[in-house]
What does this fold into?
Amino acid sequence: MTLSYRLGTGKAWALERKLTRPTFHAWLYAVAFLQNDATAMGQQVAWSVGKPGIEDALLELEASTAAYSGRLKEARDLSNRAVESAQRAQEQETAVGYVASSALVEALFESMPEARQRAARALGIPSNREAQYAAALALGFAGEATRAEAIAEDLAKGFPEATLVQFNYLPTVRAQLALNRNDSKMAIEALQSAIPLS
It folds into this structure.
């Protein structure tokens, strides 16, 4: 039984039973992405229009798809729309997360001024640890080592018992900063702490 068949059967089963929670549509988008089905992805985005609390999530998924496909301008526009939608739904923490994620996308596309600007915007609003991590990593890619290190230290102190922070976020940021210094040995050492979780 192929993955495609299983996904299609699960989708049909859920739709027959009218399981249409908002998160279900995000899941359908993800399945359509894996199947390279642009029409189905578009249907999920269209379904979400004007629905507070889900429109932003589908727009962010669409932004990620555009970035994955190398369409940075489109990804940027969709991410901005996702932020605006989340703000309209009064989901400030979610909006900050989208800004931080877009900073990382900009950095990965080597659009460093935009990455720095978006990271600063994300950090200028009280945020969550995921947004801080994405901003720190974006700043690390953008060559802002001092600021990225400061954020990493804040995360280390603020979340000493958070497994995700200690064994994923911090090693990743520290490895990127080591690579910026051309210290591949230190980058590998930084990532060693994540091995027990892999």
Q: What stands out?
A: The CA atoms of residues 50 and 129 lie 28 Å apart. The mean pLDDT is 89. The first helix runs from residue 3 to 16. The chain is about 75% helix and 0% strand.
